[in-house]
Design goal:
By secondary structure, the chain is α+β, with helices and mostly antiparallel strands. The chain is 62% helix and 13% strand.
């Protein structure tokens, strides 16, 4: 089941990056469809009703329109469909075998269990070890990410802004590499 989730995630990322290469009005429409579908799915989930509803009908119609929209884009841009179908799965052993001693791969996946508990899972892969861990206190991590995004979105002008930037950056570093053994492993390596 986890392999299926990973494949769907990779396919979604690939599809989103392909749609970002299209003209802005088309990629905006793509994003708008996805947002509207997500909102209707959340409404349906919250209503938790098995019975027929106009929301479920609207969701079905919107998904149908979205598929037609994607099909029309693939018809006009045949190179997109070939790119999105070129997803190759590989196992961790193959990844490890392709890494040299000075290279690491770190992967983070955000997960929402039942859309209530958010978690961030991490996997650090070296040529001879695999470390998996969970980022603790996701809400503070998310708060720091948002603050970091705000800080880098405009030039830092005051000493207070620089200090705040250093503190938030260091806090994120500590969340992403939560213990000294991981920090030592990452030190002086290509990531």
């Amino acid at each position: 089941m986890e392999k299926n989730k990973a494949l769907l995630l990779i396919h979604g990322i690939k599809q989103n990056s392909d749609f970002n290469t299209l003209p802005k009005h088309i990629s905006d429409k793509f994003i708008s469809f996805k947002k509207n579908i997500l909102e209707l799915e959340n409404l349906n989930r919250e209503s938790n009703s098995i019975e027929y509803s106009s929301q479920k009908d609207s969701l079905f119609q919107l998904k149908k329109q979205f598929e037609l929209f994607k099909d029309s884009i693939y018809n006009k841009n045949p190179n997109l469909s070939s790119k999105t179908s070129e997803i190759k799965l590989t196992n961790l052993k193959t990844v490890q075998n392709n890494l040299d001693e000075n290279t690491l791969v770190i992967s983070y996946i955000s997960n929402e269990e039942n859309f209530r508990k958010k978690t961030l899972l991490a996997q650090l892969i070296s040529s001879n070890n695999i470390y998996s861990f969970e980022i603790i206190n996701y809400n503070n991590f998310e708060k720091n990410c948002n603050e970091f995004r705000d800080l880098i979105s405009k030039p830092l002008k005051t000493e207070n802004q620089f200090n705040n930037f250093k503190n938030v950056s260091y806090a994120l570093y500590n969340y992403l590499l939560p213990n000294d053994s991981l920090k030592n492993l990452v030190e002086k390596r290509k990531i």
